[in-house]
Specification:
Distance between the termini: 51 Å
Number of helices: 14
CATH superfamily of the largest domain: Dehydroquinate synthase-like - alpha domain
Structural class: alpha/beta
Bound molecules: nicotinamide-adenine-dinucleotide, zinc ion
Helix content: 40-55%
CATH class of the largest domain: Mainly Alpha
Strand content: 15-25%
Largest sheet: 7 strands, mixed
Radius of gyration: 20 Å
Number of domains: 2
Number of strands: 11
Strand order of the largest sheet: 1-2-9-6-5-3-4
CATH architecture of the largest domain: Up-down Bundle
């Protein structure tokens, strides 16, 4: 048996386990919750996957062959465009044409895109069928597969249509990361660093020592990083499943990051985690300008990101953004200005001491964004 780490997400009757380890897909049956596994021969299994991860689907398919009543597979193209109304409808049509019923199980295999899409599809098919996440990117293993946020993008923006719908299990096979492009790996690593910055200084210190081992996919370090990240997210989600308060801390670096992503136009020029990496430093910089956070902590964060070859400043985005700091502030405001609401920021008193506020001076925000755009 391979070495398995288990993290439990405690949400009363919606509780589930996240299984982390190598070669889990070969033994996928072991990680399907007992109530579903024991009745698998009466259930149809629908595997929705990103076509870039087909080899892992074959392994999963083989592990379940003959155990379920029937197994159907459906591929969607990799990348953000698959989180659309069109693909959402295609997935539902596929389920309905194959006579999905409330006993059916959907398994989503891929990164955050297929996880978010698959979760949303599962949440509305027959008013909700059980689903299992098999995340295959570091970002999805430490973040998007945990916590039950599902959804698709619309012309009006990202993730504006979706649901809160928890999976029955997450099977996090770290072996799948072997084929993940390095840039995607580093994008996911930004979210790992984020957990240290939010409320776990010892984890950040551990990453300072071991971050390069995580990025080199060394099994022990990688498992520890994913486990700690999942535990951090699980505990925040258990406290605030529907994002009424604390869950917003997970958005550290994201107010800035999302604006950068929007400015870059989601054309692959800037990956989500790259925006978060730059955005976390901006959040620290803003905190320092407001007299909340010592310079030393910013230097430490910047040193760590630089050591791991992560993006730290908006001027490193290539080709350069054509936007001014004021343009980016407007992107951050989005429809909030119209509604008379203030932008929410996650600021910090230092590494491991993040907090949420709307009490921020716009001139300071513009200064921080300007520094990042100019590379200071
Ligand atoms: N639900 C949440 O709580 C939550 C949290 C964070 C992010 N998200 C969402 O997650 C999405 C981003 O997720 P992502 O970064 O995983 O992107 P992704 O799913 O687009 O995957 C990134 C790229 O890697 C490819 N890929 C995936 N696994 C691979 C593997 N093992 N080997 C080779 N290639 C592989 C994909 O085809 C794609 O091209 C965004 O849509 C974001 O909104 C959701
Ligand atoms: Zn994120």
């Amino acid at each position: 048996m391979p070495k398995i780490t288990e993290v439990k997400l405690d949400l009363a009757e919606r509780s589930y386990s996240i299984h982390i380890g190598k070669s889990l897909l070969e033994n996928a049956l072991d990680y399907i919750p007992a109530d579903l596994r024991d009745t698998l021969s009466d259930r149809k299994v629908f595997i929705l996957y990103d076509k870039n991860v087909y080899p892992y689907v074959q392994v999963l398919d083989e592990a379940l062959a003959g155990k379920a009543q029937d197994i159907k597979t459906y591929a969607v193209k990799g990348g953000e465009p698959s989180k659309s109304y069109n693909v959402f409808q295609e997935c539902l049509d596929w389920l309905l044409e194959n006579k999905v019923n409330r006993q059916s199980i959907l398994i989503a295999v891929g990164g955050g895109v297929v996880g978010d899409l698959g979760g949303f599809v599962a949440s509305v098919a027959m008013r909700g069928i059980p689903y299992i996440q098999v995340p295959t990117t570091l970002l999805s293993q430490v973040d998007s597969s945990v916590g039950g946020k599902t959804g698709i993008n619309t012309n009006q923006g990202k993730n504006l249509v979706g649901s809160f719908y928890q999976p029955k299990a997450v099977i996090c096979d770290i072996g799948t990361l072997g084929t993940l492009p390095e840039r995607e790996l580093k994008s996911g690593y930004a979210e790992v660093v984020k957990y240290g910055l939010i409320n776990d200084l010892p984890f950040f210190e551990w990453l300072e020592e071991n971050g390069e081992k995580v990025l080199a996919l060394e099994e022990e370090a990688l498992t520890h990083a994913i486990k700690t990240s999942c535990e951090a997210k699980a505990s925040i989600v258990a406290e605030d499943e529907y994002e009424g308060g604390t869950r917003a801390l997970l958005n550290l670096g994201h107010t800035f990051g999302h604006a950068l992503e929007a400015a870059a136009g989601y054309d692959g020029r800037l990956l989500h985690g790259e925006g978060v990496s730059i955005g976390m430093l901006m959040a620290f910089d803003l905190s320092m300008k407001m007299g909340l956070c010592p310079q030393e902590d910013i230097s430490r964060l910047e040193a760590h990101l630089t050591k791991c070859n992560m993006l730290t400043k908006a001027n490193e985005i290539k080709p350069n953004l054509k936007h001014s700091a004021e343009d980016l502030l407007e992107l951050m405001q989005g429809d909030k200005k119209m509604l008379g609401a203030k932008i929410g920021f996650i600021l910090t008193h230092g590494i491991g001491q993040a907090f949420q506020t709307t009490d921020v001076n716009e001139e300071d925000v513009v200064k921080v964004v300007k520094n990042s755009l100019e590379g200071f």
